[in-house]
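BUG: 3D viewer hangs when loading the predicted structure for this chain

Environment: internal workstation, default settings.
Expected: structure renders.
Actual: progress bar stalls at 90%.

Input used:
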Amino acid sequence: MADDLAKRRLRAEILRARRRLTDDERRAAERSLAARALELPEVAAAEVVAAYVSVGSEPGTRALLDALRSRGVRVLLPVLREDDDLDWGEYEGAGSLVEVPLGTGRMTLLEPGGARAGTDAVLSADVVLLPGLAVDRRGMRLGRGGGSYDRVLARLDAAGAAPALVVLLHDAELRDTVPTEPHDRPVTAAATPSHLHRFP
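Structure tokens produced before the viewer hung:
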């Protein structure tokens, strides 16, 4: 229970800080984040990347998605299912995205509008880009708490797939420690607008 409370408090703190960023700061961070992520050898060499479209105050991913696609990388984007698991569809440019409202007072997602590839499509990814709110010095990621990406990571483990796991964050979101649970697993690296952080 204490860890759950600590997670809620840290999530609230980081979301408040994200909301304080100006539009100019967000755009600059998005461009820098894309450049930084592409410096990771795993991302630079990837043929298939499972990514996501940033929404709200999340660190921007659009510049990275377009850069990957322009390199000929197959970019898979998540489609949230009714059971909170993730299906996947291919990114075919900004014009192919559709808005999917999650309900009154909740965020609106941007999802690929084309054919669905199935929940196991993520198993083909060389790199999985994970949304997150923070990561610590051990590589432990704090997510939003919805559990969708926990299912993805469990699916990868069950299949013996070992893509690079990369979380995209703002610079201040690298922390000494974040609260964890037994099922949590470390990421390979974190990219921020200013630095790359690789974890053991």
